[in-house]
Amino acid sequence: MFRLAVKMTVARTGRLILTSLAVILGTAFLSGTFVFRDTINQTFDRLFADVFRDVNAYVRSTTFLELDFGGEQRAATPISLLSVVRSVEGVTSATGDIQAFARVIGKDGEPLGSEGNGPPTFGSIASADSVGLWSVSEGRLPIGPTELILDQATATNGKFVVGDTVRVVAVRGSREFTMVGIANYGDISSPGGATFALFDQPTASEFLLQPGFVDAILVEGDDSVSDEQLTQRIDAALADDLKLETLTGAEITAEVQGQIKNVLSIFSTFLIVFSYIALGIGAFVIYNVFSITAAQRMRENALLRAIGASRRQVSRVLLIESTAMGVVGSLIGFGVGILLSQLLSALLKATGFAVPSRGLAISMSAFVNTFVAGVLVTILAAWLPARRAGRVPPLAALRDTALDTAGNLTRRIIIGLTIMALGGVGLVSGMRDAPIQVLGLGVLGMFTGILVLGPAIARPVALTLGIPIAKLRGPSGVMARQNAARNPKRTSRTAAPVLLGVALVTAFTALAASIRSEIRDTFGNAFSGDIALTVDARGFGGIPLSITDQIADLDGVAQVTGVGFTSVRLSDPNEPPALTQAGAGQRGVFVQTINPATITGLFDLGVTEGDLTSLGKDGIFVAADRATEKGWGIGTRLQVTRIDGAVIDAEIRGFVSGETSFANYVASREMFADTPSPIFDAFVYIKVAEGSAVDEVQTRIAAITSDVGIGTLLSKEQFIDEQAAQINQILALIYGMLALSIIIAIVGIVITLLLSVFERRREIGLLRAVGMSKSQVRTTVRWESVITSLLGAVSGVVLGVVMGFVVVAALDDEGNIAFKVPINETLSIVLIAFVLGVIAAIYPAWRATRVNIVEAIATT
Amino acid sequence: MSIFPPTAAETTTAGTIAAHAVSASKIYVTGDSEVHALDGVDVSFEKGKFTAIMGPSGSGKSTLMHCVAGLDSLTTGSVFISDIDLSLLNDKQLTELRREKVGFIFQAFNLIPTLSAEENILLPLSLGRRKGDAVWIDRVIDTISLRDRLNHRPSELSGGQQQRVAIARALASQPAIIFADEPTGNLDSKTGSEVLTFMRQAVTDLGQTIVMVTHDAVAASYADRIVFLADGKIAGEMFAPTAQKVLDYLKHLGE
Question: Are A508 and A734 in contact (CB under 8 A)?
């Protein structure tokens, strides 16, 4: 039987390639993301190994806060300790290191690098010491408070040459420097697209951090002792109460490598999840192809059964064939994935996040993962069709053609609707209090239900969609409509990837539209100013407080208030302290910093109890639901540990609703006034004095902000729009998924059409004989494709709207979120599906015109 | 179609001949060997007559039909359908010619399964976006007596009914010539004779021209004339045939 399977497989190379195409596509995404991840990791591993090559020891504070997304914020280290470290025996040199916020303003007045989500913009120290991380490639090192150098990439992008004046914004405000040189980081021009402005140590400390402080001390030894011994000696030389620790060069290298891996892992995990989804949708295409080919070979299989093959043997032939396709497809897919990873790198480069290339990393585990997943998915997808093939009655050998029929429709409808209803229940409870898994099961239930229902609705829906086509396109249209409806099971399976993608996108778009209008209402009510200055950089940099104060002094400005964020560690003295490893960081929480003196009447933080002016240096407001959860009340004392390690005994003095505050905790900016890790404002709200024109005031503010090159000035309307638009970032991810399912859907439709064309070549031959022109043949195939694609889109939109409605209804306890169907988006989706159908039909339609009439109609 | 000026050969035959072939040769090359499916065949098919083409398997009778009908092309020689030299036509023109001037009846898979009987009958007309002659189509449908089955799909019709629908389709556009390829090959003798009777009627009563390929002597006996083919050449012809005469001739041809 094995030999027969091999012979049958080889005899149908065309089909082998077609089916493998689905496998190749699914595995290519997977291997692409694996290879991409490995390549980036390897690149940064080597980069930091290079950068810290001469660093034998690393001194830093033990006080730090862990932030979300694997980041951390660490207390500063006094530069005065440099001499202590230098005096340790075995140390040849030591220098300070700073990595802080600094923004280089381009010659056109626009800041270089991106605000917010792009690679960060840094200020740092350029040092003559060999342990410095930077090497000067042109000019010389900066000396004194008016000189800086830039990294190579930033200098090139900003068209700066040695001798130019460069404006930089940092925590101390905006200043001009003379550029005296250009530097490289390790041996690359700029790591990961970040921008760097480099100063001498005193300037960097004063301008970027706090005079007399650095982030860490880099130490080079004379190699007389091991790094471990050197580290111990330095540790011994530093007083215990300084809360400092010393790491070996290898340790800090590994730590930085680990950190960057952590940050990247969020990105790559996301990509890999997408790839598995792609493989899942691909599995659907594979299942469809096997089902079609199994049906097309019914006579052949029946003949095998008639001459004595057992059911199991017939099934096994198909399974062996599918294994072969899985193996071949996964191998090719892995190769295609490598190319895909290169494409991904190029794409990142084009969007400004340049990843230095250090060669391709192709790991064994990436290969094994891709290969095993690809083969398993293929065999699983072929399992049902193979079993079905075995069940073919031997008598079918004598019948003419056997379509794969849809079976009992009533049963199908009942089962499908039941599963969908259960899914709906899961969706609703998932939206209320049930765990996230219930929500997942709910979504799964909805999709499974519609897939079961598919074959039952495919025929009527396809026929309905085909009516205008049949009317407009004459006999070709009539036949396209009938062809789309003649095999409901096949049509619905082919449309499934479109359906899945469209349903998800529609549901999320509907949900987003509803949430957006909710946000608009909330912020519209909360913000009573005229102008807002915002900067999209949470937790890293922002608008220096001095700028906020400058705006307040402007002519025509009635009231100004700034709102910012910082991280602190919060502990409840009544709770036993969590067990933490010595020297380990503590989980930080975001605190919204406000100016209690100016905020009232300009921005409503949704205070439910208390008075913001009572905040002072040691007061805190908490989101009401958080307080309830923790059992806190007015007067509860909490320990707030700032990033510099200072502990403040704070008191809860009020509650906020949490809807318009961006964090669960609110404190006055006074609490952070004396910290060496300064705070910024992220939003500045401005009210124009009565009698002054808003646009005149805005021009005056722009003069200040454009001088520092940060922030965006928005009118009240624009500000509200901007808040509502934040939801779009999530939508972008969902649209990425739509794109992915579109690619797979195209391939699925192409394969199905090709198999259908092959199956109907006799019919096509007859049509050609009685006078159907080639272009009419193409029209028939094209419209069948469009109907199939539209079937997926239309049922996807319906399912998506239903899911979106259920979710919004479940989310909306108070009845104030109105459900909105996103008309424009829905129309574009349907339009995309239409174009998709036309594109998918191009090749199959051409193949259909190549059918040889005489061969096709020859009676065999 | 008049854009093609008639040649000398055509003008001599115009008026009485529906289609004719001049030194028609068809050579198939497979690997090193050449197969002469047609070897210099000269034949004409008269208007308003029912002609049968007979011959053993591999004699080239199907190839001759395919080439004369414009489904396949000759290696050398020419084929004309009502004065038009098929070798001068491109694919689009050939398609239009088949749609307007030629009717087909095949042995099986004659009908499009997704279209109703009526839609199948009108298919060549609707492909050309033409209405056709309503009176004529009515008459054709009456002749095949399937008026009550017009809305049925092919799968709901018997084999004989399907062939009758196929005949109606071939007749509907009043083509210059109808080609039938073993039209009764898949039918039992009773249904087969019914179908042949309809074809006979189409020629006698409706004045159509039919060329039928068959290897069945009884079927051939319905024709006005039989052309015998052997080894890609014309082996002879017979007028006013009967089944017995045909069988005798075939026996003689086989020797």
Answer: yes
* Whether residues A633 and A732 fall in one domain: no
Q: Which residues of B touch A774 (CB under 8 A)?
A: 91-92, 95
CB-CB under 8 Å, B106 with A475: no
Beta carbons of A853 and B123 less than 8 Å apart? no
Q: Measured between CB atoms, which of A763, A769, A773 is closest to B92? A: A773
Decide if A483 and B66 are in contact by the 8 Å CB cutoff: no
- How does pLDDT run across A250-268, given as a tens digit for each residue? 888 888 888 777 777 777 7
Q: Please report whether residue A66 resides in a domain.
A: yes
pLDDT per residue as tens digits for the range A644-660: 778 888 889 999 887 77
Quote the CA–CA distance of A348 and A264 in Å, as a whole number: 13
Mean pLDDT of A463-472: 89
Any idea which of A100-109, A219-228, A473-482, B174-183 has the lowest mean pLDDT? A100-109
Provide the domain count of chain A. Answer: 4
Shortest distance between the Cα of A856 and any Cα of chain B, in A, equals 10
Q: Please report residues of A whose CB lies closer than 8 A to that of B92.
A: 773-774
For tokens 């892995």, the residue is A334
The CATH code of the domain that includes B177 is 3.40.50.300
The domain boundary, picked from A226, A259, A283, lies at A226
Residue B20 counted as domain residue: no
Indicate whether B5 belongs to any domain: no
Last residue of a domain, one of A710, A737, A754: A710
CA separation (Å) from A501 to A739, A741, A799?
A: 8, 6, 11
Cβ of B99 and A771 within 8 Å?
A: yes
- Quick one: A468 exposed, middle or buried, by C-beta within 10 A (0-12, 13-18, 19+)? exposed
Domain housing B235? 47-71+90-254
> Which A-chain residues 480-499 have CB contacts (< 8 A) with chain B?
482-483, 486
The nearest CA of chain A is from the CA of B97 a distance in Å of 8
d(CA A293, CA A526): 62
Split into its structural domains, chain B has a count of 1
CB atoms within 10 A of CB B180: 28
More confidently predicted of A71 and A521: A521
| Whether A688 and A601 share a structural domain | yes
Same domain assignment for residues A331 and A251: yes
CB A170 within 8 A of CB A101: yes
**Cα B21 to Cα B43: distance, rounded to the nearest angstrom:** 5
Quote the domain boundaries for residue A133.
82-226
The answer to whether the Cβ–Cβ distance between B124 and A770 falls below 8 Å is yes
Residues A298 and A217 in one domain: no
C-alpha–C-alpha distance, residues A296 and A301, integer Å: 10
pLDDT at A381 over 50: yes
Residues A724 and A703 in one domain: no
Q: Which residues of B touch A776 (CB under 8 A)?
A: 127
Counting one residue from chain A and one from chain B, the pairs whose CB atoms sit within 8 A come to 80
